[in-house]
């Protein structure tokens, strides 16, 4: 589904190379995890895939279902089924959560050439999904993320993901660290959305998230490359021994 080939990326302004030849294939129905030391380029990879400004691809590329991903506008990527979780953590005062969700869903449907959902259809869908994620109606009415707790923001992001029904979901946990409850919510949301036609790329510095989201494949990234690939046991090895052993082994 997602195929990244020899991807080289540098920071546009500084010309500093960050990704130095990433190769990765994620198949439909699978959960791949990327782990790695701080500064290895994990977040950069997710930003480049989502189309954030400021990065220059100098070699290689990436395809989603065979289509060149890196040439698409961010909206086109979303329409093609890509979702970067935690991409809307911003607070939007004055814009109701429901209105925001409906606009996002309908923009995506339009880009896919599908009919927009009526107010009634949308309401029905969002209520169903909110219920399974234990989000109460009151939270849907509030302005987007304003005054939401960390856990509520995470749940809201998972709701966005559930409503947009992406095929390829990328979650960058960031290194700020989620508390255990927020982490469990993310994991439950992901597990509920696991499907043979959908794939996940879960980026995490710590092993603990992978206790809750069982990955099929684990990759270790260091210095802008994927340096090791294995099964779930690789994550446990990292937890036990840290990254130093793996990085030293390679050097
Ligand atoms: P990770 O997510 O694995 O911790 P990042 O992708 O955030 O790694 O960062 C990789 C490297 O790129 C780091 O050395 C970081 O300092 C650098 N970097 C990333 N984005 C920027 C930026 N906008 N400006 C300056 N340096 C950056
Ligand atoms: Mg970091
Ligand atoms: Mg990061």
Automatic annotation (TrEMBL):
Q: Keyword annotations for this protein?
A: ATP-binding, Nucleotide-binding
Coiled-coil intervals, chain numbering: none
Signal sequence interval, chain numbering: none
SUPFAM superfamilies the record matches: P-loop containing nucleoside triphosphate hydrolases
Can you give the residue ranges of the ABC transporter domain?
A: 2-248
Alphabetical list of SMART domains matching this protein: AAA (SM00382)
- Record-linked NCBIfam families: sufC
Family to which this protein belongs: Belongs to the ABC transporter superfamily. Ycf16 family.
Specify the protein name: Fe-S cluster assembly ATPase SufC
Provenance organism: Albidovulum marisflavi
Organism classification = Bacteria, Pseudomonadati, Pseudomonadota, Alphaproteobacteria, Rhodobacterales
